[in-house]
Design a protein that fits this description.
The complex is a heterodimer of chains A (586) and B (288). With 586 residues, chain A is of the alpha+beta class. Helices cover 25% and strands 30% of the residues of chain A. In chain A, a hairpin with a 2-residue loop joins strand 10 and strand 11 (254-263). Mean pLDDT of chain A is 85; it is low at 50-54. Chain B has helices spanning 3-16, 63-69, 102-119, 157-163, 186-194, 208-211, 236-260, 272-281; strands spanning 19-20, 31-51, 73-82, 84-90, 123-130, 132-135, 173-178, 199-206, 217-223, 229-234, 263-268, 286-287. Chain B has eight helices and twelve strands. In chain B, a hairpin with a 5-residue loop joins strand 9 and strand 10. Chain B is 33% helix and 30% strand. The chains are: A alpha+beta (586), B alpha/beta (288). Strand 1 of chain A pairs parallel with strand 9 (217-223) of chain B, so a sheet runs across the interface.
Chain lengths: 586, 288
């Protein structure tokens, strides 16, 4: 209700109300009337006794009519507008689903404060519908648009705040697309917006974060290094004062290390451990602080698998070069029976059931290319390659059907690959090694490391064992049924799909996960390791943006001034008629 | 007694000089007086002959008739009587209603009737109906000599009859002056008054505020007799209801008068002199 006091006409009308009442009170004060007898007033007495027990108003009904007319005029003077349901905007609430929303504990977290504010807002104002959008690493809808408070509460149960990042900008873009610029957007988070220029008047940004000291694991890795496992733990202190915490390392029930760690203000501390190969998964923990999710990290044993490689190359120099290169990767198995990767120079390579084929086109009538090289940087073989200054000598061949070029020079494919019907990769490397500088550059071992690493990733099982929360985990199954045991909750049976038997795992839970495939249990770890989320120094409380623009308000609220004026006119007509009638009677 | 009421008596006596009471023949009874009665008596007006009876006054024997007929015959003469008026005055508090001339008009009207009774060679008595009927002091004297008491009774006429009825003279005239505003059966009241009376006149004396409802608005009605208070908002319909109730009430009294042979008239206190022709038209008063 818009306050009437801000409208001069309404204010005058308000003054008229008590004035009218005073006039009537004075005019209709009871006159003393002595009568000889109440005998002739019996009809009045009887109607009083037979009616309601409460005293009827002793003012004439015309007074109430005048009062009503005045009230209608006062209301009309305020320019009343009705919030019409069909024009009321929907609300899209973007909920920061990142873990930092839980900083402070269950009862005093930003999430708790944000939910209370949301409930208060929903009580204050009506919306056509409410839609909840969870802004985790990727935005996702919590459900369909709802109107009932009960349905909203049900959808809010999905707001668990476990994500390692919040994609609020993406969520706002998604909300804008969903609403077609018609919905109000509310952001509930613990961070200030990157900018507070919400010029479109659609977004309100409420932040409920509090700056709190926090020591967190921000990096954790465990790699095989010969007969040892090399473990790296990186701790960060984002606060402006030095912090200390107790670090404990456990492998099963054995405590490997326990001691205090002091970290200067706004700096990091790295801890490197060398463990014997075969040490089971270790768990690192810090003393409790504001955010619990980043106080623990798990490191599963790294994979020590190798690729069985067969070299079917007659050229001795090239063969030697490749032998040395493959050895340098550290990923080649000592055996080459039942090869998983075959390198050859002939058109048709040796038979290999599961083997990938790499054909080296080693023509002598080749041309040297100095670039520019067109490279598919997203391809697994091209990771880390920098071909600037490289002389690549290659035969002038055309791309074979089905092969996708990974590296090319003009229309000459230098490196191309295709997937055959059995899911195996058929790779063609068009390189005259002796006439090229590529083997003498770091790109050469990198290329072969990429090759073997790619092959390892496509082999059954898990190549990587330690993941960050939110990272995709793809398990190559050897059997047709896989059982996944997450750290919390019940185990799940999964069915591999595709020719490679891949199973994609949604790892939204940190901790140690187990996968049982073909009676072999594989353990992998998922760690929070989100530096930005652990940085609670950037948390803010405040409100930014505004919804109600006057021109928008006019569109959402229809003026109902005419209704009040019509009613007042009807009342005036009735008043005139009543006055004329009473005069006629008198 | 206030001078205003005393002046009313004087004014009433002056007005009453113009009127007499319509004394009917059957009302000619009472003590020896100046008016010829229907019965035989001692006046000089011959009435009839009758055969002598032992015990008759021998002075009334008509000896000439005895000479002609040889029968003792006595002459009968008409009797001379003084008819009587009993004025029954409602002395309840409602008859001295505040801010009205009801009390003054009451005494003026009583004085008119007393004077008219004198003009008709009637005696009169004034009965005050309060806590029982009682005589007004000096009521047999001319009205200016009356001692008017305060009207302080909260009882209506029926109660006064029940407590102490008036000792009205038989075959006399009886005039009731009251506002008649009390609940009850008018016929029963009138039968009591008319019992033994030669003629009954009922004068309803109303104040203007009794005859006409007050203007519309919020009213606090105060019953002058019981003191009961009643707040109401009076509008046009309420006024009409009051008028209708008054008409119905007067009709009930008029019907009762018709049944008992009484005559009924209504007089507004503030318009008393203008209402006297009404009494004349109703043959309650006779111009002299």
């Amino acid at each position: 209700m818009i306050p009437a006091l801000t409208y001069p006409l309404a204010l005058i009308g308000l003054v008229a109300l008590p004035t009218l009442a005073a006039i009537y009170f004075l005019r209709h004060k009871h006159r003393r009337q002595p009568v000889s007898s109440l005998l002739l007033w019996q009809h009045q007495l009887k109607s009083r006794e037979g009616g309601a027990k409460l005293d009827r108003p002793r003012l004439p009904w015309i007074f109430f009519l005048e009062l009503l007319i005045l009230a209608l005029l006062i209301t009309a003077a305020t320019g009343p507008r009705w919030q019409l349901p069909e024009t009321t905007r929907p609300l899209i609430v973007i909920l920061d689903d990142s873990a930092s929303m839980l900083a402070g504990g269950e009862k005093d977290s930003a999430r708790v404060r944000a939910e209370e504010r949301l409930n208060a807002l929903l009580r204050e104002r009506k919306f056509h519908s409410v839609r909840l959008l969870l802004a985790g690493s990727k935005p996702r809808l919590a459900g369909p648009a709802v109107t009932e408070q009960k349905e909203i509460r049900a959808q809010l149960a999905q707001w668990t705040c476990r994500a390692p990042a919040t994609a609020i900008e993406s969520a706002i873009a998604l909300a804008s697309d969903l609403s077609k610029q018609q919905a109000e957007i509310l952001v509930l988070t613990d961070r200030a917006p990157a900018h507070d220029d919400f010029a479109d008047g659609r977004i309100r940004w409420f932040a409920f974060g509090r700056t709190t000291p926090n020591v967190a694991f921000v990096n954790a890795a465990r790699t095989a290094n010969g007969e040892q496992d090399r473990c790296l733990l990186e701790l960060a202190n984002h606060s402006a004062v030095p912090q200390s915490a107790r670090l404990t390392l456990r492998a099963g029930t054995n405590t490997l290390h326990s001691g205090a760690v002091s970290i200067p203000a706004q700096s990091r501390e790295r801890i490197i451990l060398n463990l014997p190969a075969g040490t089971p998964a270790i768990e690192a923990s810090l003393t409790d602080d504001a955010l619990a999710a980043d106080n623990r990290a798990w490191l599963a044993s790294p994979s020590r698998r190798h690729v069985r490689v067969q070299l079917a190359i007659e050229d001795e120099s090239l063969r030697t070069l490749l032998e040395r290169t493959l050895e340098s990767t550290g990923l080649r198995a000592t055996q080459n029976a039942d090869p998983e990767l075959v390198l050859h120079t002939s058109l048709a390579g040796p038979m290999a059931t599961n083997g990938w084929h790499v054909r080296l086109v080693n023509h002598t009538n080749s041309l040297a290319y100095t670039g520019p090289f067109v490279m598919d940087h997203a391809h697994p073989l091209a990771r880390g390659l920098a071909l600037d200054g490289v002389i690549w000598s290659a035969a002038t061949i055309t791309n074979a059907p089905g092969y996708l070029p990974v590296i090319s020079a003009g229309d000459i494919p230098l490196l191309s690959a295709r997937t055959d019907t059995l899911g195996r990769q058929q790779i063609v490397l068009n390189l005259e090694a002796t006439a090229s500088t590529l083997p003498t550059t770091p790109n050469w071992p990198v290329l072969f490391h990429n090759l073997l690493d790619w092959r390892l990733q496509e082999m059954p099982g898990l190549h990587e064992r330690n993941f960050r929360l939110g990272q995709h985990v793809t398990f190559r199954a050897a059997s047709t049924a896989v059982r996944w045991q997450p750290p919390e909750g019940v185990a799940k049976n999964l069915t591999p799909s595709g020719t490679l038997g891949a199973v994609a795992l949604e790892t939204d839970l940190i901790g140690l996960h187990r996968i049982i495939d073909n009676n072999i249990t594989t353990e992998f770890a998922v760690n929070f390791l989100a530096n930005d989320e652990s940085d609670l120094a950037a948390a803010k409380t405040g409100e930014w943006g505004e919804w109600n623009r006057p021109e928008e308000t006019r569109r959402e609220y229809a003026s109902v001034l005419w209704i009040f004026l019509l009613l007042a006119l009807a009342g005036l007509g009735g008043h005139l008629r009543a006055v004329a009638r009473s005069k006629g009677t008198a | 007694m206030p001078d205003r009421l005393r002046q009313s008596l004087v004014d009433g006596a002056r007005l009453g000089q113009r009127y007499a009471l319509p004394v009917p023949q059957h009302a000619l009874a009472g003590a020896a007086g100046e008016r010829l009665a229907r019965r035989t008596g001692s006046s000089v007006d011959f009435q009839d002959y009758r055969e002598y009876q032992p015990g008759d006054d021998t002075r009334t024997i008509d000896w000439s008739v005895y000479g002609r007929t040889d029968k003792l015959t006595v002459k009968l003469y008409r009797d001379e009587v003084t008819p009587h008026l009993d004025l029954l005055v409602d002395a309840s508090r409602s008859m001295s209603l505040d801010a009205t001339s009801k009390a003054a008009s009451l005494w003026k009207l009583a004085s008119i009737f007393a004077t008219a009774a004198d003009n008709s060679r009637c005696t009169h008595a004034v009965w005050l109906a309060g806590d029982g009927f009682r005589r007004l002091p000096n009521d047999t004297l001319p009205p200016p000599a009356w001692e008017i008491p305060d009207f302080d009774s909260a009882r209506h006429l029926d109660d006064a009859f029940a407590i102490l009825p008036p000792k009205c003279r038989r075959l006399g005239l009886r005039v009731l002056i009251s506002d008649l505003l009390w609940p009850g059966d008018p016929l029963a009241t009138l039968r009591r008054i008319a019992n033994g009376a030669a003629e009954v006149f009922v004068i309803q004396l109303l104040a203007r505020t009794d005859a006409e409802p007050p203007p519309p608005g919020n009213l606090r009605l105060e019953d002058s007799e019981s003191g009961q208070v009643f707040d109401l908002y009076l509008d046009a319909s309420g006024q009409q209801q009051y008028r209708d109730a008054l008409v119905r009430h007067q009709e009930s009294w008029r019907d009762a008068c018709r049944q008992t042979g009484a005559r009924f008239a209504t007089v507004v206190a503030e318009q008393l002199e203008e209402s006297l022709p009404t009494l004349t038209a109703a043959q309650i008063l006779v111009p002299v």
